[in-house]
Design brief:
Arc Repressor Mutant, subunit A, 220 residues, six-stranded parallel beta sheet
Length: 220
Amino acid sequence: MRKIKILLVDDHQIILDGVKTMLIDEEDIDFIGCASNGFKALEIIKSQLPDIVISDISMPDMTGIELTSKIIELNLPSRVLILSMYTTDDYIYNAIKAGARGILPKQDTNKEMLMEAIRTINEGDEYYASNISKNLMKSYVSKIKNINPTDKPKNYSLTSREKEILKLYVEGFSNQEVAEKLNISIRTVETHKNNIMQKFDFKSTVEMVKFALKNNIVSF
């Protein structure tokens, strides 16, 4: 079994110690180390290529959001899971825009939730704590409802299959569930998803959901 390589980034030693304790004995986890700031983390990421980087947002010199942007900019394979006490809309939007694949609130996250997030992100999906997901969707739907009804959606070049897959993502299905519903392979689902992401420069599934709702590809 290939283990999931994890790097933890936080400027508080008590957090580093606590999360390390949660992960260190998991059979599918390879805990490669800790970093107390973004610059040190980036050097470790470049040399050791962790699968998942668990990062705080608020850190001196380089924030977790800036670190996430840098990882994307350098085309490094590591996926970022934000673990932070800052979970207001602005922080969430900026983290997703930067390329974070998941967000968890420090104050409400236990070991079971953390492990579920890590494994979900490692499989190629995003993971957001339930309260964050609900707040995001409420905000998106609220904004969409306030759009001028005379505004006509643009004619985006999605294939019928891409639209079909996009609808299932909006309904909350995972890659595996989409594959099962459409009787196709996960690799095919991921290929279609990647095509959509590349066409419109999406950074996450949340952005795709927003796009689908705003442009009347699905009803809500």
